[in-house]
Design brief:
The protein starts with 7 loop residues before the first strand and ends in a 5-residue tail after the last helix. By secondary structure, it is α/β, with parallel strands linked by helices. α1 packs parallel to α2 and α9 crosses α14. A hairpin with a 2-residue loop joins β20 (368-371) and β21 (374-377). The chain has 2 domains: 8-180, Flavin prenyltransferase-like (Rossmann fold, 3-Layer(aba) Sandwich); 190-397, CoaB-like (Rossmann fold, 3-Layer(aba) Sandwich). The longest helix has 15 residues, at 383-397. It has helices at 19-31, 50-57, 75-78, 93-101, 107-113, 127-131, 133-144, 170-180, 215-226, 254-264, 312-317, 335-346, 356-359, 383-397; strands at 8-13, 35-40, 61-62, 85-91, 119-123, 148-149, 153-156, 162-166, 190-195, 199-203, 206-209, 230-235, 248-250, 270-273, 280-282, 306-308, 324-331, 350-355, 364-365, 368-371, 374-377, 381-382. Strands 13-12-9-14-17-18-20-21 form an 8-stranded mixed β-sheet, sandwiched between helices.
Length: 402
């Protein structure tokens, strides 16, 4: 799935050691189907060569405002026309000052001023430079002018100091860029999502759990972030990296997930319950590992006793001023019948259902939306594409506040 297919990006590099990250960024952009034109300031060429950037982008690199390769000698016009976005990464303190002041004394600053497309900047500088009052004034001015500021990150810097000012990593910038092109269907909405399995201990080394990779829940968290929402993810154990831009609360058991949800639910506009929560927990958890050896002291605890876990979705749906709730149902048969019955039983307006045996551990999925109008199947697609379809469906059904 190439998420930047048919996108043309002008990538500008200003002077800074973070130019080394721009090489990785170009590679990632190309992998996602983008066409990348690289423009470098003279200062940038001291940190990375134009040859490197040309080899990675597969296209000529531009540095000179008087470049004779441009027939009309107007590189500052030709390069920006037809571009979907201009991205400056790294954006130094000096270059951001140029942008804020409207200066145009080299090719990159001139094409930014003459652009007919959005401008994004990824700051990269020392922590003191970032926090300096002039830099913060320039950042505020750029945002006021409609420029999107990506980051910066925080951590160890090339100068040996630690703090804010690091350029975001290539994959983080890629996530920001993909999100930039997605419609902001949930702008200013707060969304709480549960994902993954829960695990219920039997003894210190054994658990009961549900089969769940967490991929659909994580994809929904990313899609909601891309749609402009403030997203919080509560996740059981998975092998997945946390979605960029989404705070994640890690839990183990159903009771821990229940407590985490209730601690976060106030002020949420939407609650999406994707997690495969264990219905039952063991009440007589053994303090020591249960042994198969009949002579072992713990062998008598092998008769397990169970009690029901709290129903997280039903609890949230029954709250006063409850958020708009979405449930999930993984069935193995009679999907339409069981999914609609579950939706009505939980008292929720929308439920997403699928047949577990067809999608378990797969990269693609097939789901149907169930609401009071009936069943609405979605086409089989990659889980991230399905997640974006589902976010669009949720946004379309979300009641408008008056």
């Amino acid at each position: 799935m190439q998420e930047l297919h048919d996108k043309r990006i002008v990538l500008g590099l200003s002077g800074g050691i973070a130019c080394y990250k721009s090489a990785e960024l170009v590679r990632r952009l190309i992998e996602q189907g983008a066409t990348v034109d690289v423009v470098m300031t003279d200062a940038a060429t001291h940190f990375i060569t134009a040859v490197t950037m040309q080899a990675l982008s597969g296209r000529p690199v531009f540095n000179d405002a008087w470049d004779p390769r441009i027939p009309n000698n107007m590189a500052h016009i030709d390069l920006s026309r037809g571009a979907d976005v201009i991205l400056i990464a790294p954006a130094s303190a000096d270059f951001m000052a140029k942008l804020a002041q409207g200066r145009a004394d080299d090719l990159l600053s001139t094409l930014c001023l003459a652009r007919a497309c959005p401008l994004l900047v990824a700051p990269a500088m020392n922590r003191e430079m970032w926090s300096a009052a002039p830099t913060q004034r320039n950042v505020a001015q750029l945002k006021h002018d409609g420029v999107s500021v990506l980051g910066p990150g925080s951590g160890q810097q090339a100068c040996g100091e630690t703090g804010d000012g690091r350029m975001l990593e290539a994959l983080q910038i890629l996530a920001e860029l993909v999100a930039f092109f997605q419609p902001k269907l949930l702008q200013n909405k707060r969304v709480l999502i549960t994902a993954g399995p829960t695990v219920e201990p039997i003894d210190p080394v054994r658990v009961i759990t549900n089969r769940s990779s967490g991929k659909t829940g994580y994809a929904l968290a990313r899609a909601a972030f891309e749609a402009g929402a403030e997203v919080t993810l509560i996740s059981g154990p998975t092998a997945l990296p946390e979605p960029y831009g989404v705070p994640c609360i890690q839990v183990q058991t159903a009771q821990q997930m229940h407590e985490a949800v209730l601690s976060q639910i106030a002020g949420q506009d939407i609650f999406i319950s994707v997690a495969a929560v264990a219905d039952w927990r063991v009440t007589n958890v053994a303090s020591d590992k249960i042994k198969k050896d009949p002579l072992a002291a713990s062998s008598h605890t092998s008769n397990l006793e169970f009690s029901l876990n709290p129903d997280i979705l039903a609890t949230v749906a029954a709250l006063p001023n409850a958020p708009w709730c979405v449930g999930f149902a993984a069935e193995t048969e009679r999907l339409s019948e069981f999914a609609q019955a579950k939706r009505l039983r939980k008292g929720i307006p929308m439920l997403i259902g699928n047949l577990a045996q067809h999608v378990m551990d797969a990269e693609h999925t097939t789901v149907s939306i169930f609401d009071e109008q009936g069943e609405h199947p979605l086409p089989t697609s990659a889980k991230q594409d399905v997640a974006r379809m589902l976010i669009a469906a949720i946004a379309a059904r979300l009641p408008q506040k008056t």
